[in-house]
């Protein structure tokens, strides 16, 4: 429903046919256009990437085939963004007269947006006395060696708030630590046996002169008549 309510003309990235048509049409657009328009198209592609990544993480029941198709669409969009930024850079360098810095007579272009900041410098004057250049919006100053100050060179700095490169590194995902199997060796069984040691006959076993223990005496008690509690009459 949220996708339907957008009404911005963007394709539904979950529909393979729509996203493939969008990618092919954008790839075939090779006409030169203003840089800010290219940056806006890159923003639209970034939104589609975010929507696909959210969908992949929110739908655990997707088949492996669907996951592979969506990841392939994400990869195509990321590559196209890089291609379009290269085309925008070429457009700036070809139309250098529109971006000449009056102080240095070199191409100086800076564009900052929500997701992308594009900074381009082109050496037209080839002034050997030029020692540095600055991109003031980003607060960056670069030292230029003499070999570059007289050469036909250009410098481009791109700043993004997204990262499409780290996940392609083989070190991006942590390796699973392999724990060796623990083998418990059986402990040897120690048998403990007990033996009764006979020390021989005791000292008084065969003694005929041993005295028998006296039998306990029994005391005989004679009952006494009860005393009369009445007094005698006189």
Automatic annotation (TrEMBL):
Cellular component terms (Gene Ontology): axoneme
Signal peptide bounds: none
Region (Disordered): 193-234
Domain of life: Eukaryota
Pfam families associated with the record: Casc1_N (PF15927)
GO molecular function, one term: beta-tubulin binding
Family indicated by similarity: Belongs to the DNAI7 family.
Protein name: Uncharacterized protein
Species, as recorded: Paramuricea clavata
């Amino acid at each position: 429903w949220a996708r339907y309510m957008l009404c911005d003309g963007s394709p539904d990235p979950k529909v393979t046919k729509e996203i493939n048509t969008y990618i092919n049409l954008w790839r075939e657009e090779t006409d030169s256009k203003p840089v800010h328009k290219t940056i806006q198209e890159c923003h639209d592609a970034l939104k589609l990437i975010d929507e696909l990544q959210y969908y992949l993480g929110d739908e655990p029941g997707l088949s492996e085939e669907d996951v592979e198709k969506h990841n392939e669409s994400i990869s195509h969009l990321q590559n196209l963004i890089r291609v379009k930024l290269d085309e925008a850079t070429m457009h700036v360098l070809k139309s250098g007269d529109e971006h000449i810095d009056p102080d240095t007579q070199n191409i100086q272009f800076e564009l900052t947006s929500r997701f992308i900041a594009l900074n381009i410098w082109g050496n037209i004057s080839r002034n050997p006395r030029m020692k540095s250049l600055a991109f003031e919006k980003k607060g960056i100053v670069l030292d230029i060696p003499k070999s570059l100050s007289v050469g036909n060179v250009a410098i481009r700095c791109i700043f993004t708030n997204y990262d499409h490169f780290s996940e392609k590194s083989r070190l991006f995902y942590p390796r699973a630590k392999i724990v060796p199997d623990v083998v418990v060796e059986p402990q040897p069984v120690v048998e403990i046996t007990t033996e009764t040691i006979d020390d021989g006959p005791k000292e008084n076993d065969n003694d005929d002169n041993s005295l028998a223990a006296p039998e306990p005496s029994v005391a005989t008690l004679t009952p006494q008549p009860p005393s009369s509690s009445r007094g005698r009459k006189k």
